[in-house]
Amino acid sequence: MTLKVSDIGEKELIKYIIANSKSITPDDTAITQLNDTNLISTCDMLIQSRHFPKGMSYYDMGFKSVTVNVSDLAAMGAEPLGFLLSIAIPKNLEIDDFKQIIAGVLDACDFYEIPLIGGDTNEASEIIINGTALGLTDKPLMKDTYQIGDLICVTGDIGLAALGFELDVLDNIYVKRALKPEARIREGLILRDYATSATDITDGLASELYTIKKDGFGFMIHEEMFDVSDEYKRIAGELELDYLDLMLHVGEDFELLFTISKENLGKLTIDCKVIGEVTDSDVVELTLENGFVERIENRGYEHYVSE
Amino acid sequence: MTLKVSDIGEKELIKYIIANSKSITPDDTAITQLNDTNLISTCDMLIQSRHFPKGMSYYDMGFKSVTVNVSDLAAMGAEPLGFLLSIAIPKNLEIDDFKQIIAGVLDACDFYEIPLIGGDTNEASEIIINGTALGLTDKPLMKDTYQIGDLICVTGDIGLAALGFELDVLDNIYVKRALKPEARIREGLILRDYATSATDITDGLASELYTIKKDGFGFMIHEEMFDVSDEYKRIAGELELDYLDLMLHVGEDFELLFTISKENLGKLTIDCKVIGEVTDSDVVELTLENGFVERIENRGYEHYVSE
Predict the structure, then answer these.
(1) Which residues from A are below 8 Å from B62, CB to CB?
(2) Which of A10, A154, B31, B196 is the least buried, fewest Cβ under 10 Å from its Cβ?
(3) Which run of H or of E encompasses A88?
């Protein structure tokens, strides 16, 4: 039998490329030493049918294509240097819609203070946007440099986008987060001086925890520390969705997941929430509100894939 | 009537983006000053149905995706620093074919001495490869910094790929150039110290000449300086194609088009050919072998577009 790409999945493809290249850093971005600093570079391709939910405006598509890339700079504690935009669009797209995409890109570049410095345009059967973000940092913030006893934190509420993807009413914080997430670039720059590690949450908290896990280290997460609102639980319930599943396994929040020593936590000047600690258990666990402890599954969400 | 993208064309889209961004250098690549050097960055998206001719192997697709980007570094006289690969593939692609694409990318990175430092994988209905090439140069080689009286040169034979696209027999120099072009990275590094301007030939000599043209400056190209072989003329004739049309309006050779002062020409240690000179005529002209002079049309070739 001939093996197809669909038989092994995207993560295996990435593993194959990394295993065959001598130069890839297995972190949120590439790191290239340059005299007394480090060039940080990252690229992400967004494809309309996979990455843009149905209600998303052309403007928000443009904005998001910058956010997903800048979020990787944030996770490295890098200062934005420049953004490159490769965009392919169908030839029957209306010019005004194209201009809306570009307006979203340019407004996002202003918002994150990253100049749009170059790019490429093309024709394709659907909208495809590949962004490349470049940044600089003296001290890259890696994703697996934590120690046992470090606290595990997130920069804001997680799971908002996950719930937003399920809602039809547009005017609420959940849908806003789903359609126009914001990268935590300012927070990343502050964390660089205090955190022991960081990554951004794109595929869900569970998936990111398994991505950063090292042999011999474990994570204990506490449900009560999520501080889930009654409203969140109620809406999830009405949709017959498990709210913990939304919070752990969906993602797309673009919050930062970071670790920090107990001593440094008090020095932080950013909004953040402690959700657990690094242990020596070698497993990824959750203490539920009722006191029970269960393993967190290694399962992320593949967005908008039409199978 | 609502304007569609197909009504205005790709070049107008690029013009729109450049006009609305404060930070884009209208040259072959972006240029970002970094202490005592310049970071050169560029990205190009290749789409299977548009950019890869039918006979092209998966390996050659991977190789070409590096070449088109490195060629832009060459045109700036930049030393390669790193390459990022965003690749989207159909889920029914065979794993062995995917591995062939990656082998082509990795071999090209070795060939150009540019490390593969990062990337992204995705699923799409056809193969889409977006490469980002990063480089450094103390002295960026711009495309329009020539003076009247400068000689116009190319680094090799142009039009080989153009003829290759038309041939079914694979084992000849034309098809080889069409399927596996090579970027002139070594030549670009030498030209940086001697040339007055440079760009790479992707859309055809004519199109590039119009791209670099400044008001008040003109170009006179001499057919006899092309040194067209009898074989080239014969094969084009058998295919009922105009050989001059192939040489001027197709491209995809990835040779460098550069200008140089008469004094500096003798100092060059690379294979190259003088094909004309910069004039004050304000037009782009060709002196034919028979002595007649005609205007060169501003017309490039859109490859593999199925209209």
Answers:
(1) none
(2) A10
(3) strand A79-89
Angle at CA A108, nearest 5°, toward A107 and A114?
110
- Asked if B10 and A123 come within 8 Å (Cβ–Cβ), the reply is yes
C-alpha torsion B276→B282→B288→B289, nearest 10: -30
Q: How far is B130 from chain A (nearest CA, A)?
A: 7
Does B295 contact chain A (CB < 8 Å)?
no
Question: Best mutation site among B7, B15, B20, B23 for testing chain A: the one with the most A CBs within 10 Å?
Answer: B23
Helices B58-76 & B95-112 angle (0-180, nearest 10): 30
What would the pLDDT profile of B234-291 be if each residue is shown by its tens digit? 999 999 999 999 999 999 999 999 999 999 999 999 999 999 999 999 999 999 999 9
Query: What ipTM score was computed for the predicted complex, to two decimals?
Result: 0.93
State both tokens at A249: 């396994």
Residue A85 has φ and ψ, to the nearest 5°, of: -120, 115
Helical ranges in A121-184 per DSSP H: 160-164, 173-179
Q: What average pLDDT does range A208-232 have in this prediction?
A: 96
Q: The tokens 């992204």 sit on which residue?
A: B120
Q: Which chain B residues contact residue A122 at CB under 8 A?
A: 10, 45, 47, 50
| pLDDT tens string A71-106 | 999 999 999 999 999 999 999 999 999 999 999 999
